[in-house]
Design a protein that fits this description.
Elements lengths: L1 E2 L2 E2 L4 H12 L3 H26 L5 H14 L5 H28 L5
Helix pairs in contact: 2-3, 3-4
């Protein structure tokens, strides 16, 4: 079965059975599973961003994550521009705190 552009070791029959099993779950259980998969995807993407950009702060990882959503067409222009402007100030302040901490010898910031 093709999954996110690559072949996975799941047959069509197995996938159909999984869908049938999930369909039998109560709505609250299906929502719990969906939220779990969503969180798994978010955390996995954030880890990938960190691996690709080891010098990024957590704020920069968040900005990159949202930028990827914007480029995928999941966020409107005005929302991305607003988020980007807010994050730019936060990243500058965070970077400045890190520099000041390094100069003063305080690793905690």
């Amino acid at each position: 079965m093709e999954y996110w552009g690559k072949m996975e070791n799941v047959t069509e029959e197995a996938a159909a059975l999984q869908v049938k099993i999930y369909a039998g779950f109560p709505g609250s259980k299906r929502m719990e599973i969906a939220a779990s998969f969503f969180n798994f995807g978010v955390l996995g993407t954030r880890e990938w961003i960190k691996e690709q950009n080891p010098s990024f702060s957590e704020l920069e990882v968040t900005l990159e994550f949202v930028r990827m959503s914007y480029e995928a067409g999941e966020i409107e222009d005005w929302h991305w521009e607003h988020f980007q402007s807010i994050m730019a100030g936060k990243i500058r302040r965070d970077s400045l705190r890190g520099c000041l901490a390094a100069v003063s010898g305080d690793d905690e910031g």
